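seq:
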Amino acid sequence: MDLPSIYQAILGWPCYAKFMVVPNYAYLKLKLPGPRGVIAVSGDLQQAHSYEEESLNIAMATSQALELQSIWATMIETAPKSSRRKQSAGAFKPTNDTNVVRIDLEDDIFAWKPSDMLGILRQVAEHSLDILPGAKPVKQCLYRFDDKRRKAIGEEITRLLATGFIKEVFHSEWIANPVQVQKKNGASRMCIDYTNLNKACPKVPYPLP
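struct:
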């Protein structure tokens, strides 16, 4: 199988016959004759189960990645030639061969709330912070908020914890405070003060909010 796996080797019946191996699946043991007597190889059920689960995750991630590549290749092949021309930002204008696609809002293809976004496997995509070498971690002092803002921040944190977007971390090297930012419509939005962390990372077009 042309598929990544965590196993270093997979032994089949031809190997068993060649080395005269006697397997015992109930006790997870292999016995075979050696130069100085019988050689016994023992396994661990819990470790084997964890390996099997990890191999399944890798296989699923690889399958999803291949499926996405196939969909992307199909989209490129079926796309109109005019849409393949490189255009500058803000130049997206409908052309004569533009197709209008109608979407039913009742279809289960949109994420209307955070719990609808189930995420992807880490084997497919994983984000990491490219912190500059020699940067010292900064632990911000605790911000004080009034009762109204503290209640709003608490509700937002509870919602993010329930959906699995965040998790509690102990002994963190970097500590940043939540802040309340007012929108144009008067509502407030919770953000994180990543000022110190942004200074410790290289300049990129998309800084942390």
